Amino acid sequence: MRMRPTLSWTPAEDVPPGTTNLEPVAEALSTGGVLVLSGAGISTESGIPDYRGKGGSLSRHTPMTYQDFTASAQARRRYWARSHLGWRTFGRARPNAGHRAVAAFERHGLLSGLITQNVDGLHQAVGSKGVLELHGSLDRVVCLSCGAFSPRRELARRLEEANPGFEPVAAGINPDGDADLTDEQVGDFRVLPCTSCSGILKPDVVFFGEAVPPQRVEHCRKLVREAASLLVLGSSLTVMSGLRFVRQAAQAGKPVLIVNRDPTRGDRHALTRVALPLGTALATVAGRLRIPVDDQAVNSVKS
Q: Is the model's pTM score more than 0.85?
Protein backbone atom coordinates (compact mmCIF):
# COMPACT_ATOMS: atom_id res chain seq x y z
CA MET A 1 0.00 0.00 0.00
CA ARG A 2 1.33 3.45 -0.93
CA MET A 3 2.31 5.62 2.03
CA ARG A 4 0.86 9.13 2.23
CA PRO A 5 3.29 11.96 2.96
CA THR A 6 3.45 13.50 6.43
CA LEU A 7 0.91 16.32 6.58
CA SER A 8 0.68 16.91 10.33
CA TRP A 9 2.44 16.33 13.61
CA THR A 10 1.64 16.60 17.33
CA PRO A 11 3.78 19.01 19.40
CA ALA A 12 5.64 17.35 22.27
CA GLU A 13 4.75 18.48 25.77
CA ASP A 14 8.32 19.56 26.50
CA VAL A 15 8.49 22.05 23.62
CA PRO A 16 9.16 25.54 25.07
CA PRO A 17 6.33 28.06 24.71
CA GLY A 18 6.50 30.97 22.30
CA THR A 19 7.49 34.49 23.32
CA THR A 20 6.82 38.03 22.17
CA ASN A 21 10.40 39.15 22.74
CA LEU A 22 11.92 40.22 19.41
CA GLU A 23 15.35 41.17 20.77
CA PRO A 24 17.11 37.91 19.77
CA VAL A 25 15.82 38.33 16.21
CA ALA A 26 16.92 41.96 16.07
CA GLU A 27 20.33 41.06 17.52
CA ALA A 28 20.91 38.28 14.97
CA LEU A 29 19.98 40.57 12.08
CA SER A 30 22.15 43.41 13.37
CA THR A 31 25.12 41.02 13.32
CA GLY A 32 24.40 40.00 9.70
CA GLY A 33 24.92 36.72 7.90
CA VAL A 34 21.33 35.60 8.54
CA LEU A 35 19.86 32.90 6.30
CA VAL A 36 16.07 33.20 6.03
CA LEU A 37 13.85 30.15 5.53
CA SER A 38 10.29 31.27 4.80
CA GLY A 39 7.08 29.26 4.68
CA ALA A 40 3.41 29.70 3.87
CA GLY A 41 2.78 31.73 7.01
CA ILE A 42 4.57 34.75 5.58
CA SER A 43 1.99 34.96 2.78
CA THR A 44 -1.19 34.70 4.85
CA GLU A 45 -1.38 38.49 5.16
CA SER A 46 -1.40 38.60 1.35
CA GLY A 47 -4.61 36.57 1.30
CA ILE A 48 -3.01 33.16 0.69
CA PRO A 49 -3.87 30.82 3.58
CA ASP A 50 -1.26 28.57 5.11
CA TYR A 51 -1.59 24.81 5.52
CA ARG A 52 -1.63 24.27 9.27
CA GLY A 53 -2.39 27.48 11.14
CA LYS A 54 -5.79 28.48 12.44
CA GLY A 55 -8.14 27.98 9.52
CA GLY A 56 -5.32 26.40 7.50
CA SER A 57 -6.21 24.66 4.26
CA LEU A 58 -5.38 21.16 5.52
CA SER A 59 -8.53 21.31 7.65
CA ARG A 60 -10.60 21.12 4.45
CA HIS A 61 -8.22 20.12 1.66
CA THR A 62 -5.81 17.25 0.95
CA PRO A 63 -3.02 18.47 -1.35
CA MET A 64 -2.36 16.64 -4.61
CA THR A 65 0.46 14.11 -4.32
CA TYR A 66 2.97 13.35 -7.05
CA GLN A 67 1.91 9.72 -7.05
CA ASP A 68 -1.76 10.54 -7.65
CA PHE A 69 -0.97 13.16 -10.28
CA THR A 70 1.19 10.84 -12.37
CA ALA A 71 -1.02 7.76 -11.99
CA SER A 72 -4.48 9.15 -12.77
CA ALA A 73 -5.79 11.14 -15.73
CA GLN A 74 -8.82 12.09 -13.65
CA ALA A 75 -6.57 13.36 -10.85
CA ARG A 76 -4.73 15.52 -13.39
CA ARG A 77 -8.05 16.85 -14.73
CA ARG A 78 -9.13 17.75 -11.19
CA TYR A 79 -5.77 19.32 -10.39
CA TRP A 80 -5.49 21.45 -13.53
CA ALA A 81 -9.08 22.69 -13.30
CA ARG A 82 -8.54 23.76 -9.71
CA SER A 83 -5.03 25.11 -10.30
CA HIS A 84 -6.11 27.05 -13.38
CA LEU A 85 -8.69 28.87 -11.30
CA GLY A 86 -6.31 29.30 -8.36
CA TRP A 87 -3.64 30.79 -10.62
CA ARG A 88 -5.87 33.80 -11.23
CA THR A 89 -6.09 34.42 -7.49
CA PHE A 90 -2.31 34.11 -7.09
CA GLY A 91 -1.94 36.66 -9.88
CA ARG A 92 -3.85 39.19 -7.78
CA ALA A 93 -1.85 38.61 -4.58
CA ARG A 94 0.46 41.38 -3.37
CA PRO A 95 3.48 41.19 -1.06
CA ASN A 96 2.79 42.24 2.52
CA ALA A 97 4.80 43.90 5.29
CA GLY A 98 6.66 40.67 6.02
CA HIS A 99 7.90 40.30 2.44
CA ARG A 100 8.85 44.00 2.36
CA ALA A 101 10.83 43.71 5.59
CA VAL A 102 12.77 40.68 4.33
CA ALA A 103 13.60 42.56 1.12
CA ALA A 104 14.77 45.55 3.19
CA PHE A 105 17.03 43.32 5.31
CA GLU A 106 18.54 41.95 2.11
CA ARG A 107 19.10 45.43 0.65
CA HIS A 108 20.95 46.45 3.80
CA GLY A 109 23.28 43.45 3.60
CA LEU A 110 21.99 41.63 6.67
CA LEU A 111 21.08 38.37 4.92
CA SER A 112 23.38 35.69 3.59
CA GLY A 113 20.56 34.09 1.62
CA LEU A 114 16.83 33.45 1.35
CA ILE A 115 15.25 30.00 0.97
CA THR A 116 11.50 29.93 0.51
CA GLN A 117 9.20 26.94 0.71
CA ASN A 118 6.53 29.01 -1.04
CA VAL A 119 5.62 28.80 -4.72
CA ASP A 120 3.80 32.15 -4.91
CA GLY A 121 6.66 34.40 -6.10
CA LEU A 122 5.85 37.14 -3.57
CA HIS A 123 9.44 37.53 -2.33
CA GLN A 124 10.59 38.23 -5.90
CA ALA A 125 7.62 40.53 -6.53
CA VAL A 126 8.77 42.87 -3.77
CA GLY A 127 12.36 42.92 -5.02
CA SER A 128 14.21 40.18 -3.14
CA LYS A 129 17.06 39.02 -5.38
CA GLY A 130 18.75 35.95 -3.94
CA VAL A 131 15.66 33.75 -3.57
CA LEU A 132 16.15 29.98 -3.67
CA GLU A 133 12.77 28.38 -4.38
CA LEU A 134 12.97 25.11 -2.47
CA HIS A 135 9.67 23.80 -3.80
CA GLY A 136 9.77 25.46 -7.21
CA SER A 137 7.40 28.07 -8.61
CA LEU A 138 3.88 28.10 -9.99
CA ASP A 139 4.87 30.47 -12.78
CA ARG A 140 6.69 27.67 -14.65
CA VAL A 141 5.44 24.44 -16.23
CA VAL A 142 7.51 21.32 -16.98
CA CYS A 143 6.80 18.37 -19.27
CA LEU A 144 7.28 15.04 -17.49
CA SER A 145 8.24 13.35 -20.79
CA CYS A 146 10.68 15.66 -22.57
CA GLY A 147 11.63 17.92 -19.66
CA ALA A 148 10.82 21.15 -21.53
CA PHE A 149 9.97 24.21 -19.43
CA SER A 150 7.47 26.88 -20.41
CA PRO A 151 5.89 29.94 -18.78
CA ARG A 152 2.70 29.30 -16.84
CA ARG A 153 1.05 32.28 -18.53
CA GLU A 154 1.29 30.49 -21.88
CA LEU A 155 -0.47 27.40 -20.53
CA ALA A 156 -3.06 29.62 -18.84
CA ARG A 157 -3.84 31.19 -22.21
CA ARG A 158 -4.16 27.77 -23.88
CA LEU A 159 -6.41 26.49 -21.09
CA GLU A 160 -8.64 29.57 -21.40
CA GLU A 161 -9.07 28.87 -25.11
CA ALA A 162 -9.68 25.14 -24.57
CA ASN A 163 -12.23 25.69 -21.77
CA PRO A 164 -14.45 28.63 -22.76
CA GLY A 165 -16.95 29.60 -20.09
CA PHE A 166 -15.06 27.91 -17.25
CA GLU A 167 -15.89 30.33 -14.44
CA PRO A 168 -16.71 28.34 -11.27
CA VAL A 169 -16.70 30.00 -7.87
CA ALA A 170 -14.14 28.39 -5.57
CA ALA A 171 -14.80 27.75 -1.90
CA GLY A 172 -11.19 28.73 -1.08
CA ILE A 173 -7.62 28.96 -2.31
CA ASN A 174 -4.67 26.96 -0.98
CA PRO A 175 -0.93 27.71 -0.60
CA ASP A 176 -0.13 25.47 -3.59
CA GLY A 177 -2.44 27.49 -5.85
CA ASP A 178 -5.10 24.77 -5.84
CA ALA A 179 -8.64 26.15 -5.58
CA ASP A 180 -11.37 24.23 -3.76
CA LEU A 181 -13.81 22.92 -6.38
CA THR A 182 -16.28 20.07 -6.35
CA ASP A 183 -16.16 17.29 -8.94
CA GLU A 184 -19.29 18.78 -10.47
CA GLN A 185 -17.55 22.13 -10.89
CA VAL A 186 -14.51 20.44 -12.46
CA GLY A 187 -16.81 18.71 -14.91
CA ASP A 188 -15.15 17.80 -18.21
CA PHE A 189 -12.37 20.38 -17.94
CA ARG A 190 -9.96 19.82 -20.81
CA VAL A 191 -6.33 19.15 -19.87
CA LEU A 192 -3.70 20.03 -22.46
CA PRO A 193 -0.48 18.17 -23.33
CA CYS A 194 3.03 19.44 -24.00
CA THR A 195 3.22 21.30 -27.34
CA SER A 196 6.59 19.67 -28.11
CA CYS A 197 5.97 15.98 -27.40
CA SER A 198 2.35 15.65 -26.20
CA GLY A 199 3.61 14.56 -22.78
CA ILE A 200 2.05 15.25 -19.37
CA LEU A 201 2.45 18.81 -18.11
CA LYS A 202 3.02 19.58 -14.43
CA PRO A 203 3.67 22.88 -12.65
CA ASP A 204 7.34 23.21 -11.76
CA VAL A 205 6.64 22.70 -8.08
CA VAL A 206 7.47 19.87 -5.69
CA PHE A 207 4.24 18.06 -4.87
CA PHE A 208 3.65 16.29 -1.56
CA GLY A 209 5.30 12.88 -1.84
CA GLU A 210 7.86 14.17 -4.35
CA ALA A 211 11.54 14.67 -3.54
CA VAL A 212 13.24 18.05 -3.77
CA PRO A 213 15.96 17.82 -6.45
CA PRO A 214 19.24 16.74 -4.77
CA GLN A 215 21.27 19.60 -6.25
CA ARG A 216 18.79 22.10 -4.80
CA VAL A 217 19.03 20.46 -1.38
CA GLU A 218 22.82 20.63 -1.51
CA HIS A 219 22.66 24.31 -2.47
CA CYS A 220 20.52 24.94 0.60
CA ARG A 221 22.90 22.96 2.80
CA LYS A 222 25.76 25.10 1.51
CA LEU A 223 23.82 28.25 2.43
CA VAL A 224 23.30 26.87 5.94
CA ARG A 225 27.01 26.11 6.28
CA GLU A 226 27.92 29.65 5.24
CA ALA A 227 25.34 31.43 7.40
CA ALA A 228 25.89 32.87 10.86
CA SER A 229 22.32 32.06 11.92
CA LEU A 230 19.04 30.73 10.56
CA LEU A 231 15.79 32.71 10.78
CA VAL A 232 12.62 30.71 10.07
CA LEU A 233 9.59 32.78 9.08
CA GLY A 234 6.09 31.35 8.94
CA SER A 235 6.80 27.63 8.64
CA SER A 236 5.53 24.83 10.86
CA LEU A 237 8.54 22.77 9.67
CA THR A 238 6.26 19.72 9.57
CA VAL A 239 7.85 18.28 6.44
CA MET A 240 11.49 17.25 6.29
CA SER A 241 12.24 19.47 3.27
CA GLY A 242 12.61 22.47 5.59
CA LEU A 243 13.21 20.82 8.98
CA ARG A 244 16.48 19.25 7.84
CA PHE A 245 18.07 22.69 7.48
CA VAL A 246 17.02 23.66 10.99
CA ARG A 247 18.58 20.46 12.30
CA GLN A 248 21.73 21.10 10.28
CA ALA A 249 22.10 24.62 11.67
CA ALA A 250 21.49 23.48 15.24
CA GLN A 251 23.98 20.64 14.93
CA ALA A 252 26.57 23.11 13.68
CA GLY A 253 25.98 25.34 16.70
CA LYS A 254 24.37 28.14 14.69
CA PRO A 255 21.51 30.05 16.35
CA VAL A 256 18.07 29.12 15.01
CA LEU A 257 15.33 31.71 15.50
CA ILE A 258 11.69 31.12 14.54
CA VAL A 259 8.87 33.60 14.04
CA ASN A 260 5.62 31.64 13.85
CA ARG A 261 2.42 32.07 15.83
CA ASP A 262 1.95 28.34 16.39
CA PRO A 263 4.43 25.73 17.69
CA THR A 264 6.69 24.19 15.06
CA ARG A 265 8.45 20.89 14.64
CA GLY A 266 11.76 22.75 14.93
CA ASP A 267 11.12 24.53 18.24
CA ARG A 268 13.32 22.17 20.25
CA HIS A 269 16.27 23.18 18.04
CA ALA A 270 15.61 26.93 18.30
CA LEU A 271 17.04 29.62 20.50
CA THR A 272 13.60 31.22 20.51
CA ARG A 273 10.20 31.12 18.82
CA VAL A 274 8.41 34.45 18.56
CA ALA A 275 4.65 33.94 18.54
CA LEU A 276 3.60 37.12 16.75
CA PRO A 277 2.06 37.95 13.36
CA LEU A 278 4.91 38.06 10.86
CA GLY A 279 4.15 41.42 9.28
CA THR A 280 3.97 43.16 12.63
CA ALA A 281 7.01 41.36 14.04
CA LEU A 282 9.32 42.01 11.09
CA ALA A 283 8.23 45.63 10.69
CA THR A 284 8.96 46.15 14.41
CA VAL A 285 12.42 44.60 14.04
CA ALA A 286 13.13 46.79 11.01
CA GLY A 287 12.14 49.85 13.03
CA ARG A 288 14.44 48.90 15.90
CA LEU A 289 17.31 48.50 13.43
CA ARG A 290 16.42 51.85 11.80
CA ILE A 291 15.91 50.14 8.46
CA PRO A 292 13.23 51.74 6.28
CA VAL A 293 10.79 49.27 4.79
CA ASP A 294 9.84 50.28 1.26
CA ASP A 295 6.06 50.74 1.27
CA GLN A 296 5.76 51.75 -2.38
CA ALA A 297 3.65 49.82 -4.87
CA VAL A 298 5.18 46.55 -6.03
CA ASN A 299 4.61 44.14 -8.87
CA SER A 300 2.10 41.33 -8.56
CA VAL A 301 2.94 37.70 -9.20
CA LYS A 302 3.41 36.97 -12.88
CA SER A 303 0.13 36.13 -14.56
A: yes
